[in-house]
From TrEMBL:
It comes from Tetracentron sinense. Residues 561-705 form the NAC domain. Residues 1-20 form the signal peptide. This is Aldehyde oxidase GLOX. Keywords: DNA-binding, Nucleus, Oxidoreductase, Secreted, Signal, Transcription, Transcription regulation.
Length: 705
């Protein structure tokens, strides 16, 4: 039996705010055509931290309408359409300049997946043909291009889903005829594939309906995986299903090719010991629609959404009806916590020529509104451009939604077809960007963009406001920009940091104090967009006079130690340096040991809260104040909600140069209540200061691991 030890770190949660919604017109939002043609179809999109969007379609479409620069040509004898191709199938869109730069991608990226690593690089996995095992890296710089490893994956991945993990790595799940998952980058223990029978169980014969599974990182560090109309909670580190959720009512498939969409709703109340996580799944196609569409019968899409609290002990689906039926739609989290449902068709399914009747009107879903009577859904003004199969939508830093793509054909087809290949880019501006709300719109002054933040960090956000402040309707949010393709935005995440109280600094300038997320399970390391929202209106989305938007700040959630750092202190160092300085309120040179309330946290929750760096760990260090069992007594309370810590063996003296400086107590965690608890594998070493001359110092702080 493996022994597990603990480390702790200080991470605090900030409670989310209660806020009302503004009274709004029935339809709002504005559309702007940014580019009539970018030369390729935007089948896949990812916003990077430099306000560039990486876009690509597939290499075997034939010639695109975007030439490669400097006489470059792609030479691929495996290509099924064109072996020598001097046109681009990937591009970088400069949001600020509204310009396109062609990129050179060698292997076929058709129906691939991706995620952004903590250092800002886009890692892009799988595809078709010679791209099915490829790993591609794109670095955010002015002249960077794709770097490719054609055999970076263990298994072939086509229609798979990627998700960034709390340790900064990526998990790649599923794909056509792949009922398993793997990791990137590889380590000695992960250089293989891991079986996932759930994907076999959700596979409809000759139709599938479980490709591009919806994957969301739960607040406990496990993965919520939805495929077809079923869902599980997976402990991917042990390859164990820890929870099976009830089937979504109705029995209709929601995954590709019956493509609905899904989001993890905003995470709030991050200060609480128990955080609620809720998933929303909307749209899709009724059972049998794919075969019907192949025979020329285009069945009306689903008009229902299902919502489930995945952290509940006994979760159940709550069903809602959308005002518009939709398949192949995209769902995008907005800075104010609402959800935009956009693109897609009202009949048919995903696949070549299988969709009909474009849904031109986006819909905004307000998750905090009361349920019933359709009060959560608001229809928005329509686009004039149909966006069917292979369309995309992502949030930009200025609060607009970038919309592109749509190619329901095997090749580029611009004439004599019902819905031509679409090469344009549009921007949809939700109602919150309307000039009528200018007096309500905040503008962030600090922190500056590209600010680096640590977990559990107290953050003061300074902003200005032209009009009167409604103090109870301020909140700070941070959004992880997703990799979007095939109606699913991978790694999309919004966290409400709080902000109920704003302090006036000067006329029209305010400070709001929040705390960053406490662990990688809540917010994996990487780049986020930071917003201040006032009365449902996010900060200024207008272009400034320089090279940046007066808009959301890009922040970096990261560990406070450099790559390769490993923390292996001796008992003498833990007591004589770290604990002594902590008790005496002196500065610790490298503040890697965090403060927690040990008796409000279960041992299995300590791993993410007390992580040091990105390396795999089996020890976690922390400071904690001792909690007295009785107010007037001396006995220590060592109980948690799930169990208790029990001392074992004798305390061990800690010496420095033969001088007693402290004691080490060893404790084991038992599940249940004393004296009948069940012994677990969790072991804790608790250190306290001790002096031969003066006895123990009068301080209640202990250091444990």
């Amino acid at each position: 039996m493996m022994t597990r030890t603990l480390i702790l770190s200080f991470l605090v949660f900030f409670a989310g705010t209660c806020r009302r919604s503004l009274t709004r017109a029935a339809q709002e939002g504005q559309w702007e055509l940014l580019q009539r043609s970018i030369g390729i179809s935007a089948m896949h999109m990812q916003l990077l931290n430099n306000d560039r969007v990486v876009i690509f379609d597939r290499t075997d479409f034939g010639k695109s309408n975007l030439s490669l620069p400097d006489g470059k040509c792609r030479n691929d004898q495996n290509d099924t359409a064109l072996q020598i191709d001097c046109t681009a199938h990937s591009a970088e869109f400069n949001v600020l300049a509204n310009s396109i730069r062609p990129l050179m991608v060698q292997t076929d990226v058709w129906c691939s997946s991706g995620a952004v690593l903590p250092d800002g690089r886009l890692v892009q996995t799988g595809g078709f043909n010679d791209g099915e095992r490829a790993v591609r890296i794109f670095r955010p710089c002015s002249d960077c291009d794709w770097e490719e490893n054609a055999f970076g994956l263990t298994a072939r991945r086509w229609y798979a889903t990627d998700h960034i993990l709390p340790n900064g790595g990526v998990i790649v799940i599923g794909g056509r005829r792949q009922f398993n998952y793997e990791f990137y980058p590889k380590s000695a223990s992960t250089n293989k594939i891991f079986s996932l029978p759930f994907l076999v169980q959700t596979n409809d014969l000759r139709i599938e309906n479980n490709l591009y599974p919806f994957v969301h990182l739960n607040v406990d560090g496990n993965l919520f995986i939805f495929a077809n109309n079923h869902a599980i909670l997976l402990d991917y580190t042990k390859n164990v299903v820890v929870k099976t959720y009830p089937e979504m009512p109705g029995g209709d498939p929601r995954s590709y090719p019956s493509s609905g969409s899904s989001v993890l709703l905003p995470l709030k109340n991050l200060q609480q010991s128990s955080i609620e996580a809720e998933v929303l799944v909307c749209g899709g196609a009724p059972k049998g629609s794919y075969v019907q569409a192949q025979n020329g019968n285009f069945v009306q899409a689903l008009d229902t959404c299902g919502r489930i609290k995945i952290t509940d002990p006994s979760p159940e689906w709550s069903m809602e009806t959308m005002p518009l039926a939709r398949v192949m739609g995209d769902m995008t989290l907005l800075p104010n916590g609402n959800v935009l449902i956009i693109n897609g068709a009202s009949a048919g399914t995903a696949g070549w020529e299988l969709g009909r009747n474009p849904v031109l009107n986006p819909v905004i879903y307000r998750p905090n509104n009361p349920s019933g009577s359709g009060s959560r859904f608001e229809i928005q003004n329509p686009s004039t451009i149909p966006r069917f199969y292979h369309s995309t939508a992502i949030l930009l830093r200025d609060g607009r939604i970038l919309v592109g793509g749509s190619n329901p054909h095997r090749f580029y087809e611009f004439t004599r077809v019902l819905y031509p290949t679409e090469l344009s880019l549009e921007a949809f501006s939700p109602g919150y960007l309307d000039s009528s709300f200018s007096n309500l719109r905040p503008k962030i002054i600090a922190p500056v963009s590209q600010a680096k933040l640590n977990y559990g960090q107290l953050l003061v956000v300074r902003f200005s406001l032209p009009g009167a402040l409604s103090e109870k309707e301020i909140m700070v949010t941070m959004v992880a920009p997703p990799f979007t393709t095939h109606s699913f935005s991978m790694n999309q995440r919004l966290l409400v940091l709080g902000g109920e109280k704003a302090t006036s600094i000067s006329k029209s300038t305010y400070d709001v104090e929040v705390t960053t997320p406490n662990s990688g399970s809540h917010a994996p390391s990487g780049y986020y967009l930071l917003f201040v929202v006032h009365q449902d209106i996010p900060n200024d989305g207008l272009k400034g006079s320089g090279d940046e938007f007066d808009a959301a700040v890009v922040v970096v959630m990261e560990s406070c130690v450099p790559p390769g750092f490993r923390f292996h202190p001796t008992d003498e160092e833990l007591v004589g340096y770290y604990l002594k300085k902590k008790v005496e309120s002196q500065k610790i040179d490298l503040d890697v040991i965090r403060d927690i309330d040990l008796y409000r946290i279960e041992p299995w929750d300590l791993q993410d809260r007390c992580r040091i760096g990105y390396e795999e760990q089996n020890e976690w260090y922390f400071f904690s104040h001792k909690d007295k069992k009785y107010p007037t007594g001396t006995r220590t309370n060592r109980a948690t909600m799930a169990g208790f810590w029990k001392a074992t063996g004798r305390d061990k003296a800690v010496y420095d140069k033969m001088i007693l400086i402290g004691m080490r107590k060893t404790l084991v965690f038992y599940k249940g209540r004393a004296p009948n608890g069940q012994k677990s594998d969790w072991i804790m070493h608790e250190y306290r200061l001790e002096s031969e001359e003066n006895g123990p110092p009068q301080a209640s702080t202990s250091l444990s691991h």
